[in-house]
Amino acid sequence: MREANTPALVLEGVSKSFDEFVAVRDLSLTVRPGTIYGLLGPNGAGKTTTIRMIVNIIAPDTGRVLLYGRPMGEKLMDKIGYLPEERGLYKKMRIGDQLRFFGELKGLTPKQADERASRWLERLKLSEWKAKKTDELSKGMQQKIQFITTVMHEPDLLILDEVFSGLDPVNAELMIDVLHELKAAGRTIILSTHQMEQAERLCDDICLINKSRKVLDGSLREVKRGAGRRAVALRAEDTNGVLDDRSLVAGVKNLGDYSEVTLAEGADEQEVLRRLVAGGARVTRFESVEPSLHDIFIRKVSEG
Amino acid sequence: MRKLLVIIKREYLYRVRTKAFVITTVLMPLFVIFSAVAPALLFSIKSGGATRIAVVDQTGRLYESVRNSILTSRDEDDEEGAKTRPQAPARGMPGQQDGDEQMRQLGKATGQRYELEQVPTQGRALEEVRRELDERVRKNQLDGYVVLPANIMTSEGRAEYRGRNLGDMITTSQLRHGLRRAVIEQRMRDAQIDPRRVRELSKEIEMDAFKAGSGDEKDTGGSFGLAMGVGLFIYMGILLYGQVIMSSVVEEKTTRISEVLFSSVKSFQLMAGKLVGVSLVGMTQFGIWALAFLLLSIYGVAALAASGTKFTLPSVPPIFFLYAFVFFVIGFFMYATIFMIVGSMVTTEKEAGQLAMPVIFLSVASVYMIFPVIRAPNSPLAFWISISPFFSPVTMLVRIVTETPPPWQIALSVGIGLATILFFTWVAARVYRIGMLMYGKSASLPEVLRWVRQS
Q1: What predicted TM-score, i.e. pTM, was given to this entire model?
Q2: B141, B155, B146: which is closest to B126 by C-alpha?
Q3: A→B interface, C-beta within 8 Å
């Protein structure tokens, strides 16, 4: 089933409208297996609708959803673990019973479900809450319980919508560790979020959607490189006028301890470094500064 | 299929384990027993021994027989009472007479005692005697007094009772009964008729009803009672569990659990699972109640038998229990699906409650449909009613009890019933799935119809 080259998920020209309103327009994307894929976009961009089409809650009007090369359908539902943005647990049900129910719903035997529930509760430091009811738990705890219901059946593809919301910094770190573990175990993860810092730390590939259309996608690296603006953080003495060469440097901004040097169109940062060293400058810091995902996000969204 | 079972299991265990379920299951039979026994118990607590009654006899010759009649009413009446009692509920409209009768029985059961005294008028005016007796009642030397006017023997005469406590219905009705008997018997004797002879001759005529061609098996209305009982059970089931199934749907909507569920099971499975799960909860509860009722009635019958009362158990053909069960399940599910649809249309339980009223009316209407059917069980009207969704469960049962229709009609009724259940479950699933994706507002009927049509 999971061959190395088959993409975990492919969307081909997927569209969905509700009456007059177009929620997703002609969206295509490919998620490589074993990676973390960021589905980014502002509120109302069409992320949730896209996800609902992936998990088979709603059918696309046009286009196809392929999971490991096969058209998405009822039989493949158990291959996916879905954490919706709006969490829901049965209020009056004990955590242990609840986890068993969701596990069984995803095809585990009651025994398997119990074992995995215990393991995950331990991993997320919630073991002593097993016999409690949902309404006795804090928001963050409920969030972690919901996460367990998503992963306990060991799905190949995890879709996590705003997985960090409601988690304190300690738990957010714990969650990041868990996600890295899952990735290491070969799982594919789609993160839908508008928290760019987390996405930047976790994602291999991203797709940015805005106003129901894809704005850009690709590996994080490519996206940043393609973002245009390139700069270098430089701390150096005796630059001998190299920085005044307009064919290399578009501008210099003094930031106190160091300067941010914006490269000219088509200029190579290695060339700048070579020229500086050749000119006898003492370089104590030379670091290529990429635009943050945050900057790219803001710029793309405000452009659109 | 396996997922359906998982849903059913959760729905069932979730509800059966709640305190509310345990409490209602246990309290309901206790409540029924209590409400049956309590009035008698409470009435029997009468402080202060015998009731003291004075009798002003203006005819001058009735006192002795009135006294005998009131003091002995208990023993002499039992031969009649025993026979009339089991038939009592069948006698038709309950009215003043019936209520009076019950009170008298109750008084007898509680063993109320009387002390009677005659008040000599000695030529005094009635007004004066009354004043004196009122004074004695006020001083609590008497509990009340009866005035028998001189013309009581003719038809226009009316006796009167003045007592301290007219709310004591047992006393009033026992006095009335005693008086009536004494006066009537005196009238008979005056007309040279032997009262005992009259009693013998006017004994109740009994008629046994048999179904034609069914041999000696007596139909005491047991089957019909069972059909009505099923109707009542469906109605009760809807009242008790319609809300439950509705809030079960609304809960998943408001807590947004449905989104996770929909990514795991088909919405039809989810709805069918809920329907069966909640229904099983209801049937568990009803089963427990039925068992409690059965034990009670076995105890009751045994007690009646021990007291020497004749009592025939209504005979019901065994196959009829099967029909009753099948049609109960169909009826219950049919109405429950409507509640599911209502639940999936709304966003809060409050709104759901308002929308549920018409469904309850519909179930009441189905019980009324019994009357045209029972008059002519094989008429075309009866046929159409007994295969129509929502009316079929109760009316088809009534037809089976009265003039069993041909098997194909029964099968048709069951088939249409099942198809209705499937169809409405499908509609509920559809409305639920689309309704879940909409936020914050309840759906209007036209919107729902559009959702059902579109994919």
Answers
A1: 0.71
A2: B146
A3: 52, 55-59, 74, 77-78, 80, 82, 84, 86-93, 97, 101-102, 104-107, 149
